[in-house]
Specification:
Bound molecules: iron/sulfur cluster
Strand content: 15-25%
Strand order of the largest sheet: 9-10-8-7-6-5-4-1-11
Number of strands: 17
Number of domains: 2
Radius of gyration: 21 Å
CATH superfamily of the largest domain: Aldolase class I
Shape: globular
CATH class of the largest domain: Alpha Beta
CATH topology of the largest domain: TIM Barrel
Distance between the termini: 28 Å
Helix content: 40-55%
């Protein structure tokens, strides 16, 4: 069966945020049209090599997809429609958008092109914190983006938030949460700041120029997020993700359930026919490869059964519903107990996971020490 999900990467941004280590390049002077042509060629290759069937989810991420000009966005959506025309009845089509690059015209083009979910990079509702992390939008732009999207008719909006930012206090987080709740997005992703090598923050951190909240403050921010969103009717369904009932991200669940997906574009990852692959990261070399009719893959790995079982546990445990025992047994012909019995026992003793009737789940403690849980499943298949 071909994958039922597609990820497409648009690697351009109007600026570079100080914490960003994604495959994202400053838009100025980039060969955007040539990149899009290369992307269409990659779609052609995939539709020949592994012809798609019905698609459940499509996701255009970045970078900032909304930096594309209206005509470029229209062409991109048309090309996607040609390559992946068959869509399921509850099809989810998400586009990531940054508030500074959103216009009503562009949102209308997205709506007309079949997009039914927008994920806005808001991060925080404090202007000084937005500036501190190198974002170029203000709070007004977030509010206008959401307002316009609603006016155009989008009924499924997500906001990304960050916590643990330099100079951020628990009170700041509380205020941001009130503003977020007032905006009423259907979905929220809340990630703590990670200092990644090669970023501006990495160098500032090395030079002791970054004042970060303490671990304790960060813990309080996370607990505050969980409690306040719960009170406001949101359900935490994954370690970092919250939604109103019925609005979980279908696309992200594909990743967490270890299902396959096409990944297209520079630096994109994919998982097709049992092979996980990563595309090359340089824009020019991506374009050249596709101009020559070659696939732009940098590395690929045929996933072994053992690795797949590990991934199934590690990714699945991120979901609060946990790893379904029946799904595991159907997929691998063995029970979780047969394969990981001793790991499960040892994590249960530490009160990090719970063995429920239908699933294995993280406990409250496990939610805070997820990395310890995930590491225990690595290379431990017997
Ligand atoms: S907008 Fe997103 S992808 Fe672009 S630089 Fe900022 S964090 Fe990176």
């Amino acid at each position: 069966m071909p994958p039922r999900s597609v990820y497409i990467h648009i690697p351009f941004c109007s600026h570079k945020c100080y914490y960003c280590d994604f495959t994202a390049y400053h838009l100025d002077g980039q060969p955007v049209d040539a990149y899009l042509s290369a992307l269409y060629e990659e779609m052609n290759i995939w539709t020949q090599v592994t012809p798609p069937n019905t698609i459940d989810t499509l996701y255009i991420g970045g970078g900032t997809p909304t930096v594309l000009k209206p005509h470029q966005m229209r062409q991109l959506l048309q090309a996607i429609e040609r390559a992946f025309p068959q869509r399921s009845t509850n099809f989810e089509f998400t586009v990531e958008a940054n508030p500074e690059s959103v216009s009503k015209e562009l949102l209308q083009i997205l709506m007309d092109g079949g997009v039914n979910r927008i994920s806005f990079g808001a991060q925080t509702f404090h202007p000084h914190l937005l500036r501190a992390i190198g974002r170029v939008h203000g709070v007004q732009e977030i509010l206008y983006s959401v307002k316009w999207a609603r006016e155009i008719g989008f009924s499924n909006l997500s906001l990304d938030l960050m916590f643990g930012l330099p100079g951020q206090t628990v009170e700041d987080m509380a205020e941001t949460l009130e503003q977020v709740i007032a905006v009423k997005p259907e979905h929220l992703s809340c990630y703590s700041l990670k200092i990644e090598e090669g970023t501006r923050f990495y160098f500032m951190h090395q030079q002791n120029r970054l004042t970060l909240p303490t671990d304790e403050e960060e813990y309080h921010m996370f607990q505050l997020i969980r409690e306040r969103l719960h009170q406001a009717g949101y359900r935490q369904y994954e370690i970092s993700n919250f939604s109103l009932p019925g609005y979980e991200s279908m696309h992200n669940k594909v990743y967490w359930q270890n299902d396959e997906y096409y990944g297209l574009g520079v630096g994109a990852h994919g998982y097709v026919n049992g092979v996980r692959y990563a595309n090359i990261k340089g824009i020019q070399s991506y374009i050249e490869r596709l101009e020559n009719g070659d696939r732009p893959i940098a590395e690929q790995n045929h996933v072994s059964i053992e690795e797949s079982m590990e991934n199934f546990m590690i990714l699945g445990l991120r979901l609060l519903q946990g790893v379904n025992k029946v799904r595991f047994a159907q997929r691998y012909g063995k029970s979780i107990d047969q394969v990981f019995g001793h790991v499960v026992q040892s994590l249960m003793k530490k009160k990090l996971i719970a063995d429920k009737v239908e699933s294995i789940q993280l406990t409250e403690k496990g939610l805070l020490f997820g990395n310890e849980v995930f590491a225990a499943f690595l290379s431990d298949v017997h």
